[in-house]
């Protein structure tokens, strides 16, 4: 019979690590399961400026996460690297199964996060955090007075593009169709913005640069013509933001936990899902803002709810 933990946390991003810290400080028996590197999406962020009270100048995603990991371990959170393939969440003891192992816990906090839907062009991975971004709120400030390009045509793409005009000197939306998919009210604001431009019927095919993004090849899907877009020589680089959606990491929970139409887990304000003893925190759940600070807050709330559910005091 395997050990039964008070709480098992799936994911070691900001939400999962914050949950581990709070659960550990509550003297709960905690296991964090992470399939890859700690940090989730923030692990590819080269510099962070908007985490409240950060104490390190030039904070990076990996450095912030390293301290979060150390804190969770300091308060007794156990760790294992594994990929869960199957879950049994009903009943007093939850069972999580990988190919070789089985984990059992009285409570589960799902903090598996979400990943940005990739632009899909050659060289994209090479320039993540070096010109390519998927979060205007996170990275707009790094492109102040630079030229920036945005891939997408829906509500989020156009709204993020307008946000970027507060920082960049010029923002160009690259869209594979000849009209936007965003709501008309959003389009009206966009077309009135003097810093916003458009490349219609176009897709980004390839990125180039010496360590940072300096050029890209854009193809017109109607004519087949390929245009090379290069950074202004004085700038030395430009920004490329992908806003064609995010994908929650919730596939193994389909048909088990209540989700919205996009696959994000539904919770109440205290992170409870529809299954007793199962919580969701961070980017994986339905919410209006996905940032490190909101993920960490979700994780703390979920852990406190677990502790309260197991305490006679509350």
TrEMBL record:
NCBIfam families per record: TRX_reduct
Keyword Protein biosynthesis among record annotations: no
PANTHER family, alphabetized: THIOREDOXIN REDUCTASE 1-RELATED-RELATED
Keyword flag Iron: no
PROSITE patterns: PYRIDINE_REDOX_2
Family: Belongs to the class-II pyridine nucleotide-disulfide oxidoreductase family.
EC number of the protein: 1.8.1.9
Cofactor, free-text remark: Binds 1 FAD per subunit.
GO cellular component: cytoplasm
Swiss-Prot/TrEMBL GO biological process terms: removal of superoxide radicals
Pfam families cross-referenced by the UniProt entry: Pyr_redox_2 (PF07992)
Protein name: Thioredoxin reductase
This protein's encoding gene: trxB
Cofactor(s) needed by this chain: FAD
């Amino acid at each position: 019979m395997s050990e039964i933990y008070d709480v098992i946390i799936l994911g070691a991003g900001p939400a999962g690590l914050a949950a581990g810290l709070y659960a550990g400080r509550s003297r709960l028996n905690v296991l964090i399961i992470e399939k890859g590197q700690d940090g989730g999406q923030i692990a590819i962020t080269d510099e962070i400026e908007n985490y409240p009270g950060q104490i390190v100048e030039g904070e990076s995603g990996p450095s912030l996460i390293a301290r979060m990991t150390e804190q969770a371990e300091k308060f007794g959170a156990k760790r294992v690297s594994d990929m869960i393939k199957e879950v049994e969440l009903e009943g007093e003891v939850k069972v999580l199964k990988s190919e070789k192992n089985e984990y059992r816990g009285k409570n589960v906090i799902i903090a598996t996060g979400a990943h940005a839907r990739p632009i899909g062009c050659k060289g994209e991975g090479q320039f993540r955090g070096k010109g390519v971004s998927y979060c205007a709120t996170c990275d707009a400030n790094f492109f102040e007075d630079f030229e920036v390009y945005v891939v997408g045509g829906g509500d989020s793409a156009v709204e993020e593009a307008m946000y970027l005009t507060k920082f960049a000197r010029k923002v160009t939306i690259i869209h594979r169709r000849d009209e936007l998919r965003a709501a008309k009210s959003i389009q009206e604001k966009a077309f009135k913005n003097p810093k916003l431009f458009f490349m219609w019927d176009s897709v980004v095919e390839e990125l180039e640069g010496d360590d940072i993004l300096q050029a890209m090849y854009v193809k017109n899907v109607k004519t087949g013509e390929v245009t090379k877009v290069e950074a202004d020589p004085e700038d030395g680089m430009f920004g490329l933001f992908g806003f064609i959606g995010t994908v929650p990491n919730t596939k193994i929970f389909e048909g088990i936990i209540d989700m919205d139409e996009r696959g994000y887990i539904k919770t109440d304000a205290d992170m409870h899902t529809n299954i007793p003893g199962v919580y969701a925190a961070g980017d994986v759940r339905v919410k209006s803002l996905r940032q490190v600070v909101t993920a960490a807050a979700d994780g703390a709330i979920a852990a406190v709810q677990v502790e309260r559910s197991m305490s006679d005091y509350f």
